[in-house]
Hints:
The chain is built from no helices and eleven strands. By secondary structure, it is an all-beta fold. The radius of gyration is 14 Å and the shape is globular.
Amino acid sequence: QVHLVESGGGLVQAGGSLRLSCTASGLTFSSYTMAWFRQTPQKEREFVAAIRWNGGSTDQADSVKGRFTISRDNAKKTVYLQMNSLKPEDTAVYYCAARFRGSGFSYSTQAGYNHWGQGTQVTVSS
């Protein structure tokens, strides 16, 4: 069985920072592109950032570019999302996702990912 477990969410003031972690098991981690999505009750789940299976390149949504950084540690089978300069608009449940290399989908496309974590809440106060 494949399991993705997120951690690191919490409550912070605007301008603060958080680091989210997602640890994987049950798959060959180095063969999977990893991504972060986020969702609120009022909005559809939206793409945040992705890092390719070989770590060669990353993608970030325009709304977080320059503030969020995605990285991975294959030895720990963990992907991270470093979130700086947080804004109230960043408040959401953040989900970790995985897809096998060579999917062919855009890295921002939710349907391209077939493994998902349970989510971790991030709340940014004004």
